[in-house]
Amino acid sequence: MDKVNKILMLGCSGGGKSTISNQLFNILNIPVLHLDIFYWKENWVATQTDEWREIVKDLLKKDQWIMDGTFSSTFDLRFPEADLIVVLKRPRLLCLYRAITRLLKYDKVKRRLDMAQGCEEKFDLDFYKYIWNFNKVHYPRIETAINQYECHDKLVLLETQKDIDLFLESLTV
Description:
Helix content is 48%, strand content 15%. With 173 residues, the protein is of the alpha/beta class. Helix 1 runs parallel beside helix 7 and helix 5 (92-105) crosses helix 6.
């Protein structure tokens, strides 16, 4: 693989985006930008659209990044800038299971490092519905953007754990 400096990590919540982004950091030494940290304000308050787009534009100015987060509203900004687009298309039951088990793993004291300050894990039925419907409702937006921005040559689609392992292994050779 040619040298990459700007990587998009896309996929459903609970699919492993943050974990794989951190593994890519360990292999490539490219800083990870967990977009949830920049998007969510305390108590899960979303950033307004105009402000969010400005934040993303500023992040894109960095020389190197791994952007962990789907956020389809900024595909038009991010897709043209990326050297590599990694898409995780994982089974919804796996994603849902992982999202729910976060409730048990993280609390007010032990916070996920990829999550914004003041955003605690909580039972959120709407979030779980989002995960359940991701491959049917939201994944097509990723496919549309890949076609729209003609990104097939810089796309890596990972659907299984074996795909993920082989991809990461290919970067360490």
